[in-house]
Specification:
CATH superfamily of the largest domain: Glycoside hydrolase/deacetylase
Shape: globular
Largest sheet: 6 strands, parallel
Radius of gyration: 28 Å
Number of helices: 8
Number of domains: 2
CATH architecture of the largest domain: Alpha-Beta Barrel
Order of helices and strands: HEEHEHHEHEHEEHEHEEE
Distance between the termini: 74 Å
Number of strands: 11
CATH topology of the largest domain: TIM Barrel
CATH class of the largest domain: Alpha Beta
Length: 266
Amino acid sequence: MKFFVFTKRRLITAASALAACVLVAVLSVQGILAIQASTQQAAQAAAQDRKLPIYCVDSQEKKIAISFDAAWGNEQTEELIQILDRYQVKTTFFVVGEWVDKYPESVKALADAGHEVCNHSDTHPYMTKLSQEQKIQQLQNCNNKIKAITGKSPELFRPPYGDYNNGVIEATDSLGMFTIQWDVDSLDWKDPTVDEMVNRVTSKVTDGSIVLFHNGAKNTPAALPKILEKLQAEGYTIVPISDLIMRENFTIDHAGKQIAKQTVSS
């Protein structure tokens, strides 16, 4: 049997070593907590600095907007105009400048029918990959083409692919325009069935919603009448986006909902 003899010196040395280990552990935990706190603060600061487009509006009325993006084909534009006219609905068409070049008669037809024709960039690029000067040029070129036909310069912009960052919104703001997204996506570009599209849109719409369609999706003309009938039967008024959004005294929450400042709780 072995016996260990602890002298006073050995006890002091052992105690010192243990204390050092405890101190290192405490400092390590404090360091981890400090890093976590710093990371959280940085994330919160980034979130506060992040600019958001308008996805929907905090409306006090049963009012929504329907929008169409026009970037490529044009086979269905006239049919969509006829359907919307039949239900006495005015909407917003976001058109690409190159589309305006190809189909100026359709741009005029949309404006003559009372729909607002707005900016979807000039060449449909990923806007976040452009310089600020290029972003502004995209916006201005498309605005000029639309104004030359309709007599009105657009006040709304929808980024291609829904691609945006602070720079995109700042470029739009610098021209006195509003950046617009959507909170209800019909997914018509994926060619869902008519019933699937009707159910998807009508089940997701709420007061202040902005719905996304495309002017070249296969089943949109067949689904649109059923969607309009159901929404109107539920008491919704359908307006262009410019008649839905606020222009001053508003904020945009973390989900992209535009809210009147006086309704924001402190």
